[in-house]
């Protein structure tokens, strides 16, 4: 007898896995201490995983996928967040997967680090504004400070004194990355 | 509605088919679209939209441009915000810098002015309060006089009533003259059995002979019976 073939119809999704409640509700002690991954974040070569610290059940709402309040210790793109993160509003997404305990080493031993982006501290003004400012102040090449707000999950930082920034924010197209330089063939 | 609108559109080539034959004047020329509140069309219910694939290079490049644009825009906004703050701090239009002596003098000036206002208002208030007090006194006086008058009238009326009662008390039936009154009443029975015409003439009954001297009472017994009834 031939194997029964399941044929899916309808819209496809990028999610793969279960909702958080489906995983957590089955485990002894609510799975505290176990490792979780979001399959969506496995696109990055750097390790992205979470470890469950605390679970709080939330009542099921009619007509909604059941949510759960889970506090996790999060490592995202190889950077461990300093504070525990609470997952609640995204816990309904069927994208979570539990890592078997013998496979946790795969994530823990992944030591790839993201190359840090160093932003310049000063950049050029846009052309029209630059004209206005030049006319008003007489300054030849007025510059403005780069807006940057430091948070714990940002992978970029402002350049230190005398440091060379790794990206340039000139007015214009800028320098495309080597991956996408093919798009500009014959143009640049 | 939409379908009808489309019909109108197809009929536009006809000379009289613009809006004439239809019961409505709505005509979508430019945006021929389903209104938002209508559900998905029957023919589109099971349509699965194709998901566009982005190549790696395109995605990377768009991300880079996007990041660059957003950072630049945020920086411009920050620059303009700081510019406004700087302008507010340095411009003298609404931000006059004073020495401590000047500030003290200004304060003293304000204080004097305030005191003068207070004095003026106090004067006005005094005058108003005095006037109000006078009015109040006059009003109370008036009310007191009116009350006295009222009291006197009342006393006078009571007096008159007492006098009238004393006058009437002369004809009262008391324990002393009770027997005499009964005697008099028995001796003079009153018969109300009479008639009066429009001219005021009195027509007495045939049996009330004791009141009318002219006609003697032949049979007083039935009359007494009638009265007792």
UniProtKB/TrEMBL annotation, chain A:
<dbReference type="GO" id="GO:0003735">
    <property type="term" value="F:structural constituent of ribosome"/>
</dbReference>
<dbReference type="GO" id="GO:0005739">
    <property type="term" value="C:mitochondrion"/>
</dbReference>
<dbReference type="InterPro" id="IPR032053">
    <property type="entry name" value="Ribosomal_mS34"/>
</dbReference>
<dbReference type="Pfam" id="PF16053">
    <property type="entry name" value="MRP-S34"/>
</dbReference>
<protein>
    <submittedName>
        <fullName>Uncharacterized protein mRpS34</fullName>
    </submittedName>
</protein>
TrEMBL record, chain B:
<dbReference type="Pfam" id="PF14943">
    <property type="entry name" value="MRP-S26"/>
</dbReference>
<dbReference type="GO" id="GO:0005763">
    <property type="term" value="C:mitochondrial small ribosomal subunit"/>
</dbReference>
<feature type="region of interest" description="Disordered">
    <location>
        <begin position="208"/>
        <end position="229"/>
    </location>
</feature>
<comment type="similarity">
    <text>Belongs to the mitochondrion-specific ribosomal protein mS26 family.</text>
</comment>
<keyword id="KW-0689">Ribosomal protein</keyword>
<keyword id="KW-0687">Ribonucleoprotein</keyword>
<keyword id="KW-0496">Mitochondrion</keyword>
<protein>
    <recommendedName>
        <fullName>Small ribosomal subunit protein mS26</fullName>
    </recommendedName>
</protein>
<keyword id="KW-0809">Transit peptide</keyword>
<dbReference type="InterPro" id="IPR026140">
    <property type="entry name" value="Ribosomal_mS26"/>
</dbReference>
